[in-house]
Each structure stands twice: as structure tokens, then as C-alpha cells.
Amino acid sequence: MKPNPSFPPGRRTIGLAVGLLALAVSVATPGLAQTAAIAKMIPVILSTDIGGDIDDTWALGFLLRSPELDLKLALGDHGLPEYRAKLLAKFLQRVGRSDIPVGLGVDAAKSPAPERQAGWVKDYELARYPGKVHRDGVQAMIDLIMRSPEPITIIAVGPTPNVAAALAREPRIAGRARFVGMYGSVHVGYGGKQTPVAEWNVRADPPACQKAFTASWEMTITPLDTCDLVQLAGEKYRKIRDSKDPVAIAIMENYRIWLAQKKGPDDPQAEFRSTTLFDAVAVYLAFDQSLCNMETLGLRVTDAGFTLIDPAAKKMSVATSWKNLGAFEDLLVARLTGTK
After folding, report:
1. Which of 48, 264, 300, 324 sits at 20 to 30 Å (Cα–Cα) from 212?
2. Residue 164: how many CA atoms within 13 Å on its side-chain side?
3. Contact 179, 112 (CB under 8 A)
4. Dihedral, CA atoms, 288, 290, 293, 294, nearest 10 degrees?
5. How far apart are CA 133 and CA 199, in angstroms?
6. Domain boundaries, the chain
7. Within a 10 A sphere around the Cβ of 222, how many other Cβ atoms?
8. Burial of 321 (0-12, 13-18, 19+ CB in 10 A)
């Protein structure tokens, strides 16, 4: 597959480049530093099955606190379109970002995860959202990509019915976007086991994932090999738990509701540690990859939901191990708490 010329290799370290550019400008002309950084923001669409596992909510907060990224549309995926759109809308409104449109995804036929965060939006109506709500989120995604003067990055952190539907309606989006996501198990399975498994985001809808994995866009993914290792505890976790930042507060409210539904109201985990924060790694890879070891691999999605190395398959950039997991955790904590 020919590489997408819109995304040269240097784009993979854009986070570092943006920082250096802003620093250089600030030294020469301090008042222009912020303008320089904003000018280089990457336009993104988030496609998420938020409201299933809690890590999507953490990833949304991380995205909103990442100055390298400019969220143009937040779109629920994998069924439960009203529920997921409510979670997105209320979160965005609570943190002062109702300028971001929300989209309802396709109502997938497959059974999605339980609505464990329903308590957070039980009294919230989409009509109250001050921003734009697209009832046809897939078309909103297509329109945004096709009208954008620059390539859009799709950050996908759930099963991919939306992406498959968008590609079916308008195949040309693959030439105007790149795809960054949390998918697969290459060398390592859940819990660090040395046997790859059929990872959930792939296994939940293999045909849709096959469409995403064979489209002509540039792809970058974090499989379980890297994202399954991210869990905050100790002082790092306490900083988020006790933070007064509105993003951290909204995350913790959702986490406590989610955990009570999953483990019972008396479970103390929310006071001590996070769950595994798979999806936050995909957000990071959308603007920087310097903390991961990246391999270029051909990956094929099987009908059973495995992601197999296949030299004949489409090549993509895969984060197969960490160079510095601790530094990523520090970055995540700092951004979610609004500290430097």
C-alpha cells in the first residue's frame, strides 16, 4: 500500500516539533508563543464507545487537555447512540467545551456493553447541550473530513461500526484522513500474558475492523502490548483523585458511578487506583510517539478478531513496547490535573 503523502514520517513526532517551535518563538517574540502552538494543532475526530469501559472517559479528558489536538467532533460508536451522545455532551458542557459538536453513531445490532455510567446522565437531555448535536454522526464525520483544508486524524477507541459505515458511504475519506486507535494484541495478551488474544475492540465487530484496517489511510495503533500496561496508583493517582480541575472532577464522578455498577457501591478501588487506561495511549499517539517503541508491521484482522502479523497485509505503525511508561503516566497526570 502506498503511504499517504499527507503524513510524512516527521508528523509522527509532531508533539515535539510543536513544543520546539513554540519555545523558539517565545524566545524571539514571547507574545507569539501561544499563537504558534495553536497554529500547529492537529484536527481530530473522536470515535468512542464511551460508557462501556471507563477508560474512554479518561481518554476524552486527556484529549481535551492536549494542546496539540483540536477536537472537531466527538462521536459515539458501537450502539447505544443516545446514551453515548449524552455522556459526551454532558462531559463537554461540564468542562466548558460545548463548542465541540457531538454526533450519534450508528445503532449497531450487536449487543454493546452495559450502561454503567447511566447514573451520571439520568437527568440530562441532549436538547440541553448548547453546542451542535448531529443525529447522523457518520455523515457529520464524512462532511468534516471532506471539507477540511487539511487531513483529519480519526482517534478511534472502540469497535468501528461508524468508521466502516463512513467508508462505505464515502470511500474517499481514507485519502483525506489518518487513523489512530486502540486495537489488537500483537505479541502480548491481557495481563502481560505472552500469548496474543482477540482484543475486545476488534473482536466486538471483526468485519468493521477489517474495513478500517484495510483502508488506504495511514494507521497508527496501540495494541495490548502497550496500552494494557497503563494504570495509575499511588501519588500519581491521588493527584487526579484530589484535583480541583473540572476535567479530573468529571472523570472521578464517572469513575465512581461506573465502579459502583461494576463492583458494587462499597468497593473502595476509586480511592486507590484507576482501572487500565487503554484508550489514553491512542490519544497520545495522535500527537507524539517518542515514549513508545514503534514497529512497522503488516497486520491482518481475522474473522475471530485476532490481529495477526502478515507481511502481505497493510503496513501500519504499531506501539509494541514502552521506552518510558513512567514519563507517559506523568504526562497524563499533569494534563488531567492542569499542572506543568
Report:
1. 324
2. 18
3. no
4. 40
5. 31
6. 14-337
7. 28
8. middle
Tell me which residue of 66, 48, 90, 52 sits closest to 253, measured CA to CA: 90
Q: For 214-237, how does the pLDDT look when each residue is reduced to its tens digit (9 = 90+)?
A: 999 999 999 999 999 999 999 999
Q: 246-263 vs 55-64: helix axis angle to the nearest 10? A: 170
**Residues 29-49 as b or e (16 or more Cβ within 10 Å = b):** eeeebeebbeebbbbbbbbbb
Q: Which residue has the cell 454503567?
A: 116
- The DSSP-derived string for 253-315 is HHHHHHHHHHH-TT--GGGTB----HHHHHHHHTT--TTEEEEEEEEEE-TTS-EEE-TTSPE
d(CA 199, CA 183) in angstroms, rounded, equals 7
Backbone phi, then psi, for 220, in 5-degree steps?
-135, 130
Architecture per CATH, 14-337: Alpha-Beta Complex (3.90)
Angle between helices 206-214 and 161-169 (to 10 degrees): 50
The 10s digit of each residue's pLDDT in 234-256 is 999 999 999 999 999 999 999 99
For the chain, the helix, strand and coil percentages under 3-state DSSP, each to the nearest 5: 45, 15, 35
Q: Which three cell numbers stand for residue 310?
A: 502478515
Residue type, position 36, single letter? A
